[in-house]
Specification:
By secondary structure, the chain is mainly alpha-helical. The protein has helices spanning 3-13, 16-27, 32-44, 48-61, 66-78, 82-90, 99-112, 116-129, 134-146, 150-163, 172-182, 186-199, 203-215, 219-232, 238-249, 253-266, 271-283, 287-300, 305-317, 321-333, 339-351, 355-366, 373-385, 389-402, 407-414, and strands at residues 166-167, 170-171. The protein has a two-stranded antiparallel ribbon. Strand 1 (166-167) and strand 2 form a beta hairpin.
Length: 421
């Protein structure tokens, strides 16, 4: 058995004491090839600290070897020693054969650290040095995609697609489909999704294709793909939402509602499904079911504003004033301040004949609803009924200025002796 095989067997046995002895023995060796292969072996099994010791030993003997700087930087990054790793990578200069490799390592580090522009700068430099290298062009396209530069990424992927089907196990057509979709060019994405589906109809591909069809206005095709997806993977939760939305666009409201409910049965903690099911139930004329879904959505997230507004609108329309006041009082206690909700509170208090509270809520709502014709009309009527004529006239003037062809309020103003229109 060779020395390297012995080291691998020791690693697999996992005896820490023996491993420590092996490392101590290796650090005293001058067989650089063995040291390098052993360091790589330790790293491949996740023993980064041990690998780093061996790379450090090699660098003591070969301090100017650029490849060792890059390799040790890799282990240091794994160990969280980022500053030292970056010093090693930046010490690899343009005259070194490994300079492009160092640039790629730096780009990868900056990308993982969320420094997109720095990553792009390094990969761009590498691309300029070796513009015909497919792996570097692919890495550049990947960074462009991650950075939201969809046009540039698309052009690079298209060039690559003319030369090869895949790089690193990733099909170029999959990236073209993703990039076109990310840039909202859904019709352009569809042929690439179809090409992928012909080879292998994976769940993510089916969903991506369905979304592209939906966004392109072909909801019928989206439903066909999503039915296939749900049959293949009933726990692909996102499919239920998109399928329901597609069916709703097609006017099949009952099946859309059933699809949302199927999704909820699979994932009862999806607040967006609960909200959409509630809205779907309203379209079907079953407000009691809508209320159940909306309350479930708010139980999952009490600060879910869209669900809150939808439920408040339902209560207001059905004149369920006690329920509406309970809902909105709780929201106020949680610092939710939305003018429309203040208006709903005003209407509810008015129906409950709590006029002082209604007046306060009307005032709160008015600040953000000066451009709402219906609200201003309700506010003006309330003020007139409460005998607040001067305040009412101010609101009516604003209302007529907002909607000059409102004959009723214009006539009201003209009837006032002290008002000119």
């Amino acid at each position: 058995m060779g020395q390297l095989e012995e080291i691998e067997r020791t690693i697999l046995e996992g005896d820490v004491e023996v491993l420590t002895g092996v490392i101590d023995q290796l650090t005293g060796s001058t067989d650089f090839d063995l040291l390098y292969e052993a360091a790589d072996l330790f790293a491949s099994y996740g023993f980064m600290g041990e690998a780093d010791r061996l790379f450090e030993t090699l660098r003591l003997h070969l301090p100017d070897e650029a490849q060792l700087k890059i390799d040790r930087a890799g282990t240091l990054l794994e160990l969280g020693e980022e500053d030292e790793a970056l010093l090693l990578l930046t010490d690899v200069g343009p005259d070194d054969e490994e300079y492009v490799q160092a640039l790629l390592a730096l780009a990868d580090y900056y990308q993982m650290s969320g420094m997109a522009e720095a990553a792009l700068s390094k990969i761009k430099e590498a691309h300029e040095l070796v513009p015909d290298e497919p792996v570097i062009r692919f890495a550049y396209a990947e960074l462009l995609l991650d950075s939201g530069k969809y046009g540039e990424a698309t052009r690079m992927y298209l060039d690559l697609n003319d030369e090869t089907e895949e790089i690193g196990g990733i099909r170029i057509v999959s990236r073209l489909a993703e990039t076109y979709s990310a840039g909202a060019a859904y019709e352009e994405a569809i042929p690439y999704y179809e090409e992928m589906l012909q080879d292998n109809a994976l769940p993510d591909t089916l969903f991506g294709a369905a979304f592209a069809y939906f966004q392109s206005g072909n909801a019928e095709k989206a439903v066909i793909l999503l039915d296939d997806l749900i049959e293949m993977d009933p726990d692909y939760f996102s499919a239920y939402m998109l399928a329901g939305q597609s069916l709703s666009v097609l006017g099949d409201d009952q099946r859309a509602y059933d699809m949302f409910k199927d999704g909820i049965r699979r994932d009862e903690f999806d607040k967006e499904l609960q909200l959409t099911a509630g809205k779907s139930a309203l379209k079907l004329g079953i407000p009691e079911k809508a209320e159940e879904h909306l309350k479930e959505a708010l139980a999952l997230d009490p600060e879910y504003i869209e669900a809150l507004i939808t439920l408040a609108s339902l209560y207001n329309e059905r004149e369920q004033s006690p329920e509406l006041l309970d809902l909105l009082t709780y929201s106020k206690e949680n610092q939710v301040d939305i003018p429309l909700l203040d208006a709903f509170m005003a209407y509810a208090y008015e129906r409950e004949e709590q006029y002082d509270d209604a007046y306060t809520s009307y005032g709160n709502a008015y600040i953000g609803m000066k451009d709402d014709h219906d609200f201003l009309g309700n506010f003006a009527k309330f003020l007139l009924e409460e005998g607040k004529r001067d305040e009412a006239l101010k609101i009516v003037k604003e209302l007529v200025a907002l909607v000059p062809d409102d004959e009723n309020w214009r006539a009201f103003l003209e009837a006032q002796n002290d008002v000119e229109v």
